[in-house]
Each structure stands twice: as C-alpha cells, then as structure tokens.
Specification:
The chain has about 350 residues and is of the alpha+beta class. It folds into 2 domains: about 10-155, Aminotransferase class 4, branched-chain amino acid transferase, N-terminal domain (D-amino Acid Aminotransferase, Chain A, domain 1, 2-Layer Sandwich), CATH 3.30.470.10; about 165-325, D-amino Acid Aminotransferase, Chain A, domain 2 (Alpha-Beta Barrel). About 20% of the residues lie in helices and about 30% in strands. It has helices spanning about 50-55, 75-90, 95-110, 185-190, 195-200, 245-260, 315-325; strands spanning about 20-25, 30, 35, 55-60, 60-65, 70-75, 125-130, 145-155, 165-170, 205-210, 220, 225-230, 235-240, 260-265, 280-285, 285-295, 300-305, 335-340. The structure holds pyridoxal-5'-phosphate and 2-OXO-4-methylpentanoic acid (COI).
C-alpha cells in the first residue's frame, strides 16, 4: 500500500484516521476473537455502563520506526499490566496480558504505513480503551466489555517540543481524591481535570501542577504526567498513592541509575522546588518536558528553575538516552522494546 500523504515532521498530538482498529469483546464469561474494523465508530447501547457510570479506562503507548526500518513498541507488557489494574479499579473485566499484546502487535502491523519515518521525531501512538457495554440503570458493573485499540501518528504533546514551559499551582483544584482513582488510568480522571487544565492554559501555563489532595504540601502530578526533579546527582520523584505509576518515569529512574545517579521516590515538599537544578514532567506523550518556572497562584510565589529558559543537562541527557533506545539508535540493554515484524 502506498505511503499516506502526511507532513510527518510537523505532526501535532492529535487524531489522524488510519487504516483500521482492533476490538475484542468479553461476553458470556469469556473474551472473544480479536476483530479488525475499518470503522471509526462503535454502536453502543444508550444505557451502557460506560456512558452512565464511567466504566472506562485507557492506556497510551508508542511504536517507533528505527534507522534500520524496524518498528519497535516500547514496554507494552507494562501497559498491559496497568490496563489490568485500571480495569480492576473500576470493577471491569481485566483483559489478559497475552490478548493485550496480541492486539498491539496486530493493530501496529495492520497500520504499519502510519508509523512515521525515522528522523521525523514522530511516532505511532497506540490508544487501548476498555468500556462497560451492558445496559445499567442502577449503579452496578456491566457483565459485557469491549476493548478497542486505535492508533494515530503523533508529534510532540506540547507544541514547544523539548523547550521548557511554565506551569502553575492552584489549591482550588484536585486532580483526584486521596484514595480515589488517581493511580489508575480511568477516563473520568481526565474529564475531572479539564477545568483546571483549561484555567492553566487561559493564564498562559502549559499545565496545572497538582499538590497532593490530602495535605496540599507535596508535589503530586504534573498535568497528565509524573514529576521529577534533579539536584546533587539525584533523580527525585514523588511517592504518592494518587499519581499514575508512569512507565516513562520508571524507565527514566533506571536510566538515571545507569548514569550513576541516586534515585529517590519520596514525598517532595512544595518548598523543595527552590532547591532543584532542573525539574520536568514525564510521560509517554511528552517523553520528558522540562519546566522552567512554577508559579503558585495562591501565594504569588514564583519558583524560577531555569533562568535562561533552556532545558538542563541531566534532563536533556535522560531524554536523549530514552529516545535513542526507543528509536533503536542505542542497544536496548533492558529489553524494553519489542520489534514488530
Ligand atoms: N500521569 C498521568 C495522569 C498520565 O495520564 C500519564 C500518561 O499516561 C502519566 C502520568 C505518564 O505515564 P506513562 O509514562 O506510563 O505514559
Ligand atoms: C501520556 O501518555 O503521557 C499522557 O499523559 C496521556 C495523555 C494524552 C492522556
């Protein structure tokens, strides 16, 4: 099939139609066959539990084309496991890891012409989602579920790319509740963050930096990404039950260790921002996104991290190392990538 007419180097993080998606439905107590669909639509019962009671969870992972032409998917087993945890957290039927991985392989193979060329900085974003489809009017879990995996080629999540951005803090908003759904990838978390996110954008910030929802003392989540800070040869990232355990963060912690750094997962008090040499958000979509300044909208305090507005050397090194592994430029010594052929 011929190559699609796409300006690969100028892609943003948005939806582009591809050739097909794959689907799998849980019915009568078992998962069915993986089906291929060329439709962008899904017929749904008007009383489905996902529409009324938020039985929906999703994932996000990427496939990269290397200089060798091969397509690599990054750490899909980790996404499969988190998808199971998310399903369990919403009383949905968990999709077995083998089916998850088979669906990823299938949807990537079938849409191979949409995996962006090497050197464009773009990748193929894979978006699995699970919904409860049985009709429910009383609040109770469905007994039928569908998993859909769609793909779309994407560029950088923030239009600035790897350029540092400013973020803000407001105690008016929590992303999630202390013992709520923050540690799973429930769609409802993102719906509930839209007001705060739009407020941050209106004020000229890239995202809202959330404090922990219990005491409002510690740094929690940086928009839809994890937070990390660098100082004294240390990689420091919040330990919190209300953040999503990021696979990118987990990978960066390993790379930081490989680079001889000390890794700390602990509470990070807000005031500690003053002492960091570098801070950044990390996640599949943004990879690493350096942060130059944090403005506390409630106290007026500004934490200036990068005076020249440039990304710091450690964040840059971590970013380059992770990208090099994902694109196959450096050996995958941790066995994080699966080649799809
Ligand atoms: N935190 C939130 C709230 C997210 O939505 C994401 C994105 O998936 C992350 C963190 C980063 O996680 P990962 O690196 O696994 O993509
Ligand atoms: C990520 O993949 O890093 C995300 O934050 C997902 C986001 C687009 C919902």
């Amino acid at each position: 099939m011929k190559a699609p007419e796409i300006d690969w180097s100028n892609l943003s993080f948005s939806y582009i139609k591809t050739d097909c998606n794959v689907r799998c439905t849980y019915k009568d107590g078992k998962w069915g066959e993986i089906e291929i669909s060329d439709s962008e639509y899904f017929p749904i019962h008007i009383a489905a539990s996902c529409l009324h009671y938020g039985q929906e969870a999703f994932e996000g992972l990427k496939a990269f084309r290397g200089n060798d032409g091969k397509v690599r998917v990054f750490r899909m087993d980790e996404n499969a496991k988190r998808f199971i945890r998310s399903a369990e957290g919403l009383k949905m039927q968990p999709l077995p890891e083998e089916i998850f991985c088979e669906m990823v392989r299938k949807v990537v193979r079938l849409n191979e012409r949409f995996v962006p060329p090497y050197g464009t900085g773009a990748s193929l974003y894979i978006r699995p989602l699970e919904i409860g489809i049985s009709p429910r009017v009383g609040v109770s879990p469905a007994n039928e579920y569908t998993v859909i995996m769609l793909v779309t080629p994407v560029g950088p999540y923030f239009k600035e790319g790897f350029k540092p951005t400013k973020v803000c803090i407001s105690r008016e908003y929590d992303r999630v509740a202390p013992k709520g759904t923050g540690s799973i990838k429930a769609g409802g978390n993102y719906g509930a963050s839209l007001v705060a996110g739009e407020k941050a954008h209106e004020l000229g910030y890239s995202v809202m930096l959330y404090l922990d929802p219990k005491e409002k003392k510690y740094i929690d989540e940086c928009g839809a990404a994890n937070f990390f800070g660098i100082k004294e040869n240390r990689y420091i990232t919040p330990a919190s039950e209300s953040i999503l355990p990021s696979i990118t963060n987990k990978s960066l912690r390993q790379l930081a260790k490989d680079m001889g750094m000390i890794v700390e997962e602990r509470h990070v008090p807000l005031e500690e921002l003053d002492s960091f040499d570098e801070i950044a958000a990390c996640g599949t979509a943004a990879v690493c996104s350096p942060v130059s300044e944090v403005d506390d909208l409630d106290t007026g305090k500004k934490y200036i991290i990068s005076k020249d507005g440039e990304a710091g050397p450690v964040t840059t090194a971590l970013y380059n190392k992770l990208r090099a592994i994902q694109y196959g430029d450096e050996p995958d010594t941790h066995g994080w990538c699966e080649i799809i052929d």
